[in-house]
Amino acid sequence: ARAQAEAAQTAAKAEAFANYRDAAVVDMVLQKLPQVAEAVAQPLLGTRRVTLVATGPGDLGVARLPGEVLDVITRLPAAVEALTGVPVTQ
C-alpha cells in the first residue's frame, strides 16, 4: 500500500511539472506578445509611402494596414506551437 501511495504521489508530481512547463511557456509568450506586436509595427513608423497590393473583399489602401499587422500577430500562436509543441491557444 505504501509503495502504491508513493508511486501515485510521484505520478502526480510528474504531471504537475509537465503542466507547469506548458503553462510557463504560454505565460512567457503572452508576456512577450506586446513586444512582438511593437516589433512588427516598428518598421512602419518611418515609412513615407506604402504600396499595398490586395485582392478580394475588405478594406483598401491604408485602411487595410492595421489588418495586415494583426494578421502577422495572429499567426504567432501557431508558430510558437510549431516551435515548442505547446498548444498556446489552450
What does this structure look like?
This protein has 90 residues and is mainly alpha-helical. The chain folds into two domains: 1-50; 52-89, no CATH class. The protein has helices at residues 2-41, 65-74, 76-84. α1 packs antiparallel against α2. The chain is elongated and about 75 Å long. It starts with a helix and ends in a 6-residue tail after the last helix. The mean pLDDT is 78.
Keywords:
mainly alpha, 66% helix, 90 residues, 2 domains, 0% strand
Strand segment count: 0
> Radius of gyration, rounded?
21 Å
Please identify the structural class as seen in this structure: mainly alpha
Largest sheet: none
Give a short synopsis of this structure.
The chain has 90 residues and is mostly helical. 66% of the residues lie in helices and 0% in strands. The model has no long low-confidence stretch (mean pLDDT 78).
Set out the fold topology.
Blueprint: H1 2-41, H2 65-74, H3 76-84
Helix pairs in contact: 1-2
